[in-house]
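seq:
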Amino acid sequence: MASKLYVGIDVGGTSMKVGVCDEGGTLLHTFEGPTENDKGSERIMENMAMYARLVVEQMSGSWDDVQGVGVGVPGFLDIPNGVLISSPNLVLKNAPLKAYLTEKLDKEVRVNNDANVAALGEAWGGAGRGVSDCVMYTLGTGVGGGIIINDRLVVGHNAAAGELGHIAIVSDLEAIQCGCGKKGCLETVSSATGIIRMAKDAVARGDHTSLGAVENIAAKDVFDAAKAGDEAAARIVNRAAYYLGKSMSVVAVVVNPQRFIIGGGVSKAGDYLFNQIREVFFQYTPEGASKGVEIVPAELGNNAGVVGAAGLILRS
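struct:
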């Protein structure tokens, strides 16, 4: 049994996943239970505390060996004080998570947003193992991310560091408005939502594409069509990869990570996508910022959040 244990809580609107890691970031045990969002703020916080103790008990661990508890949660946070101000998926509002859990668990508690926590999980216990400087992109409904420098999560003045999807990278003539209210964000072309939008636009224009026969187009449909030789689909994937690679070139000359990690559903397209991203990245990035840099897929999948939450105690 590990002598030092770290507990992570990954809070979702429907369920919360809780896990125990050792000091090297290896996930030892997990438990998943209902969030019970419909039963109010107090019940959600009670469940966090209960599940944290339960997951250690299930692995026959000692609570005395727990060095601290980290929480990853979606929403707007006062990170230093561990207060969840509001969340799109939870009834929690102005919730003093850090203070509540510190009192209930008698351990150090740290709280951060779910995107940062997932990035930290990959850096600590996944595809970022062995490097001290890495940046993670999460390609899903939107484009999220996180930045780890000198083994520490970078949060920033307003906790907005790592909002990679809102790098204004798309040229003005191609730019459309993003959900954030600005135009030209990476998220508008390189997220699953952006890829689907471009596919629907191609069908509506009358482009010669097999996607016209697909009901409810998903990003996977676009990648599958592109791999099968559909030129319109290939152009869409190329555009998504182009702006991803170009955004990485911007990040590289600012923080100079050794490794870029790409996760989320879109990343499952594999080398077909990754090779295009790498080509653009090395084309646009000066050698001083690109030499030795790797662009790799994430490894932890749905466990990234719980591992990263546990890692907040050591690496934030």
